[in-house]
Amino acid sequence: MVAGGAAWGGGVLDVAGGPNDIVRLELKTMKVVTWFAPGMRSRVIAVDANGVPLILSEAADEELWRVPEPNGAIKTWSGPADGPRPVGSVAVDGRIAWLSGSGLARDWIIYRYTDSRGLEVVANFTDRPVSVAGPCA
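RESULT FIELD:
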């Protein structure tokens, strides 16, 4: 993912769901910094208007982290791996991130993430698949 003057990605080869670090490549200087190293399979799912990534980690539980500085992770949500969770498309509207979600059951969820309130369910559907389409105008 590229946002806020940086490229974000996994720091090691992700083999069969193994753990990986998240690294940040500063595009102007080409400097690489390990940003998040939880010992779990992880991926950046969104970057807010201030360049702060939201990172989803997968292990026995799913965890959502806000990471404003290297190794300065703040856990904002946790849930069982077989339960509803943020997956799929994301749209960032300033400091608000809108995330699509689903679970193993036939349910589709729209989440809203803000620093002040964390991750909130704003809509839940069981009769049709839904996902976030893009940023608000």
